[in-house]
Amino acid sequence: MPTRLPDPSPRRLRTQQQLLSAIRRHAGITRRDLSRLTGLSRSATAEAVQDLLAQCLIAERRSDSAAGVGRPSALLFLNAPEALVGAIDFGHNHVAVAVADSGSRVLADRRQAVDVDQEATHALDQAAALLADCLDERGLTASDLANVTAGIPCPLDASTGVVRSPTILASWVDLDPAHELAARTGRLVFVDNDANMGARGEQRFGAACGCRDFIYVKAAHGIGAGLVLNGETYRGALGIAGEIGHTQLPDATSLCRCGNRGCLETVVSITEVRRQLALIRPQAHARTAEPSLAELSRDPAAARVVGAAGRTLGRVLADICNVLNPEAIIVGGELSLAGEPLLAGIRESLDRYAQPAAAQKVRIDVAALGLRAELIGAVTTALAHVV
Model-level pTM greater than 0.90? Predict the structure, then answer.
């Protein structure tokens, strides 16, 4: 039974309500991050948390994090029934799936190469099949899931959830991914842009923990950004905010899939960077296994290629910093595996082109969750929808 406490003062009640709202939005959070996100002092946060724990309105659980990194930390959750959720991450050339519990622990996961851009039906079928495999591994069925959440690598119509852009995921145009996946899984499905999912993953368990204003950049076959402003995902009027991959560069001329020339992703995508690396280090790319970017980036000539990509990306991010003044830029996606040469290039352009105060303020980091940021973000989003 909950402990009977004296009636709180109006101020104390407001503090409790503020914390409950933050805990609900973030589906598990540490005391420290809760204090940073709400702006409350640590002592006020600690006192209110103890009140909420005593009333059994929230629960505290030890977690080794969905990322599997760092020391176990105490996470705060709404005191809701135990739940299981499904998570799906669609990249341009892969599908990743996981089943997780209410403590954000991944119980089973799968990843498979798929041409998501050109084979929408096959990609959706494979996602459902991989989810079924994960459930089978744990002796579960779809009915055990509270919901499923998926990240899609393209803009979605904010009002309908339908894919509208004919230039990104061409085979998905006019599809409603949430409806398609619900029909295949038999569960309620929530869908959002994959960069937004990556931002949530890093905000919960990664390099953006405690940040209220940051940019998550997914640099892979395309370039997209998840924008978090004042602690909330910003999507724009139509849901296409963050499509920075189609920012035009004045000196670039390559034709982009969107029909324009000189888009950022024609210069900085993982496909283009690997093409350049293969030209300067053909011996490494002649191996049966493709060399890792981290391995290549230790080579001085390869580091120059990666650094140039970072400077180009940083030139676009400098303008965004001038407009949004973020606390951090977190770089994820396959290109982030290049590590320090990429970050050094981004930093060079920020210091050169962003306003000095904005450049000095912003921190640049590689995604702590690596290539799992989007999948873990989908887990976090799914748990936030559990009633």
Answer: no
